[in-house]
Amino acid sequence: MINESSNIELKSILSMDFMLEEELIDLMTFCLQNPESVELSDKHKRITEIGHELYADGGVDALENFFFVLKNRIIEEIEKDPSPMRSLWNGLTDEWQY
Questions:
Q1: pLDDT tens, 19-70?
Q2: Nearest CA to 77 among 32, 18, 14, 23?
Q3: Can you tell me the distance from the alpha carbon of 61 to that of 54, in angstroms, rounded to the nearest whole number?
Q4: pTM for this one?
Q5: What distance in Å separates the CA atoms of residue 87 and residue 29, rounded to the nearest whole number?
Q6: Domain locations in the chain as residue ranges
Q7: 40-59: string of b/e by CB count within 10 Å (b at 16+)?
Q8: What whole-number distance in Å separates Cα of residue 96 and Cα of residue 49?
Q9: Using one digit for the tens of pLDDT, what is the confidence trace for 73-85?
Q10: Rounded to the nearest 10 degrees, what angle do helices 4-33 and 40-78 cross at?
Q11: Integer angstrom CA distances of residue 66 from 50, 57, 62
Q12: Torsional class of 59: left (φ above 0), alpha (ψ -120 to 50), beta (otherwise)
């Protein structure tokens, strides 16, 4: 049985996941649409930081799940594949090598 504090914690986690997902969508979309931007390095750094957060919270499964959603949404929205950016999360674990 889920108590009130567990329910609040779950809502907080889901809210954080949604915010990170939206931030990653924005960052990756920017990178794909502006490959020559001087901001690219900063955007890649933030994508890597978010990868660290995701891995710390949910391991490789979290990375896989997030990237699956990101890839589908970005392809649907701008018809560009963010798969090359998966490598920004390399080094978090031996299980993630792209």
A1: 999 999 999 999 999 999 999 999 999 999 999 999 999 999 999 999 999 9
A2: 32
A3: 9
A4: 0.85
A5: 16
A6: 25-89
A7: eeebbeebbebbeebbeeee
A8: 15
A9: 999 999 999 999 9
A10: 100
A11: 11, 12, 6
A12: left
